[in-house]
Write a structure and sequence with these properties.
Length: 218
């Protein structure tokens, strides 16, 4: 009974994950993953995990405001990250970003500095390691016939780990490179933005238009 929550046909107000005696698919994990649920709840007994989860949930609630009897969002993600880090009493932030967003990185760095954080920033090309180091052939480069430095996410992670940062922020890393960073980081991590070269770093644009303009992706 493999969970397929993404295929649940019921509206949120009627789902069993939101209300008692609610509706759900026959393979709903609430029904068939009870042991896993019990174990996950037990893990929240760990003090630091509990503090992290509580502050994340408090931050979620503070991102809405009631106006004319309706809830509306009031905070962009960059502000959420700053406020959450303040709640957690974090002081030193690791900022791991892609060279392609160097301009945006300057703005983000200044933003967190202005919020009194100590920001340790590392660009993806740091280390100047040639792509040949990991077996990349010349015709596999972006521009064949040139010397290209590889993205080095493990080095990025090593730098912020060495600086003993409290919290990490990722921005614009390539698919796969972001996975390597997350795998090798010591401190918790959040994502400010992901890379989408074609869609201006808004990958949901393809999702929203998968049945129309981007149907060729199917």
């Amino acid at each position: 009974m493999k969970p397929t929550c993404a295929r649940c046909p019921h509206p949120g107000s009627e789902k069993m994950c939101n209300i008692k005696d609610g509706k759900g698919l026959a393979n709903c994990p609430i029904l068939h993953k009870k042991k896993v649920l019990e174990e996950s709840i037990r893990l929240y007994d760990e003090p630091e995990t509990l503090r992290f989860a509580r502050n994340a949930t408090i931050q979620e609630g503070e991102c809405y405001q009631e106006l004319n009897g309706r809830l509306r969002p009031v905070k962009p993600r960059i502000l959420e990250i700053a406020e959450f880090a303040q709640k957690m009493k974090y002081q030193k932030l690791g900022f791991i970003f892609c060279e392609g967003l160097a301009g945006e990185a300057k703005v983000v760095d200044r933003y967190f500095k202005d919020h009194d954080f100590d920001v340790i920033s590392v660009v993806c090309k740091a280390g100047r390691t040639p792509k040949e180091q990991i077996g990349i052939l010349d015709d596999q480069k972006i521009v064949p016939g040139t010397i290209e430095s590889m993205c080095n996410p493990i080095f990025q992670a090593g730098v912020v780990n060495d600086e003993k940062v409290d919290f990490n922020i990722l921005m614009g890393l390539c698919v796969g490179h972001d996975s390597l960073v997350i795998t090798h980081l010591d401190a918790p991590v959040t994502i400010l933005a992901v890379k989408d070269r074609l869609l201006g770093h808004n990958p949901l644009a393809a999702v929203y238009n998968l049945d129309s303009y981007y149907s060729f992706l199917k």
